[in-house]
Amino acid sequence: MSTETLTDIAVRTEDVWKIYAQEPKDVEAVRGVSMEIHEGDFMTMAGPSGSGKTTLLNMLGGLTRPTRGRIWVRDLEITALSNKELARLRLESIGFVFQAFNLLPVLSALENAEFSLVLRGVPPEERHRRVRELFDEIGLEGLEDRKPGKLSGGQQQRVAVARAVVGQPTLVLADEPTANLDSHSSAALLDTMERLNREHGTTFLFSTHDPRVVERARRRVSLVDGQIESDER
Predict the structure, then answer these.
(1) pTM exceeds cut of 0.70
(2) At residue 2, does pLDDT exceed 80?
(3) Which domains occur in the chain, in start order?
């Protein structure tokens, strides 16, 4: 463990494994990973298909439990939480950005972005204000009332980013966020996330094999066969 205090650490893992029982041989998707993600990191976790990066990302976000090992979000050991407690943690402390956007088609862009605030009981006036300010900041002003089907892919992904960060989470986990975007939309999305990281201190971890994402990162972790091969700053 580093000498930095726990308040400087967004996420910490200790000897984390994920093993899937299969015939004729179990699959070790993640193998003994110990790492620290610090507040304000803008980092990638890259590796070939099957390297374990998405599995590890899901464990860090409390979506999947490790076979063994321990994970902390700040000073809270999430591997000791119940399913209900994990759901609350995800709602309050972790933002997710998925490559498939996962927006609700019947809701407007504003309603999608404020959905987690609705679940947290934030009053309508406050959540509308927070989302509109964020939309202005990331270039979505004037699109608040549009349904996802009336937005471009890049606009939909920025709505997904707004949904992930509006609750000011400890960590934002982005799984292949540029996979379905063209180069212009990818660059605009990365500009948005870099600005949120720089100006608000939002911690980002990207699971990706996109070199456009990797080259923007200030910290680059490489996974091979479920293990950390390198960790460069």
Answers:
(1) yes
(2) no
(3) 40-51+83-221 (3.40.50.300)
